[in-house]
């Protein structure tokens, strides 16, 4: 559990720090800022999964943990123990970024560009499904490409972020959505769409 906590903190700290830097450089959502944010999340996950894969599994996401439990790729007791570690890690990562960088935290997930709650639910569901499916096919299902699964997993998050971040903030991870909301504090009435 400790490795999963540390790995989740590191993954989200680097992703949040990259997003914070992008917000400092350009307060407007430009194409460059969008790609910068997506790369921050995708590359941070790639590196963090690769570093922690053999220790804790490198899950860093309650949705992934739940999917592994449902598909019987993880014992339910281990899943129950990992969930609070991942959620707490999201809060710790957001708090560290808030303390270390100037300005308000820039990683709170919100709907934008006229995105409705229903649209947000489906956008987040599709982004999360891509990430979970990639993990199930590359890491849970063992084959000769499994050792390089972190590359595909990081790329899957990058692609999911490209599709989601502009409209929903691109959480694709309940711990990622909750952490900044707790630290900000900013809980929109539709926060449940990220779970």
From TrEMBL:
Primary location class: membrane
Organism superkingdom: Eukaryota
Database matches in Pfam families: MIP (PF00230)
Signal peptide: 1-21
Entry membrane topology: Multi-pass membrane protein
Alphabetized InterPro entries for the sequence: Aquaporin-like, Aquaporin_transptr, MIP
GO MF, one example: water channel activity
A cellular component term, taken from the record's GO annotations: plasma membrane
Protein's UniProt keywords contain Transport: yes
Subcellular locations according to the entry: Membrane
Keywords from the UniProt entry: Membrane, Signal, Transmembrane, Transmembrane helix, Transport
Transmembrane regions listed in the UniProt entry: 33-55, 76-97, 117-139, 151-172
The family this protein is said to belong to: Belongs to the MIP/aquaporin (TC 1.A.8) family.
Entry protein name: Aquaporin 14
UniProt source species: Lithohypha guttulata
């Amino acid at each position: 559990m400790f490795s999963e906590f540390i790995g989740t903190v590191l993954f989200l700290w680097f992703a949040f720090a990259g997003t914070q830097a992008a917000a400092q450089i350009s307060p407007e959502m430009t194409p460059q800022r969008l790609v910068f944010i997506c790369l921050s999340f995708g590359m941070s996950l790639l590196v963090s999964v690769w570093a922690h894969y053999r220790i804790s599994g490198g899950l860093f996401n309650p949705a992934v943990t739940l999917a592994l439990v449902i598909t019987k790729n993880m014992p339910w007791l281990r899943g129950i123990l990992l969930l609070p570690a991942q959620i707490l890690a999201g809060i710790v990562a957001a708090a560290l970024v808030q303390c270390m960088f100037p300005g308000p935290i820039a990683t709170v997930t919100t709907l934008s560009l006229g995105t409705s709650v229903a649209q947000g639910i489906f956008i987040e569901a599709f982004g999360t499904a891509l990430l979970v499916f990639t993990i199930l096919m590359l890491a849970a299902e063992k084959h000769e490409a499994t050792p390089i699964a972190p590359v595909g997993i990081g790329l899957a998050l990058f692609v999911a972020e490209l599709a989601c971040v502009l409209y929903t903030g691109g959480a694709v991870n309940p711990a990622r959505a909750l952490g900044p909301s707790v630290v900000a504090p900013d809980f929109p009435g539709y926060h449940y769409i990220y779970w």
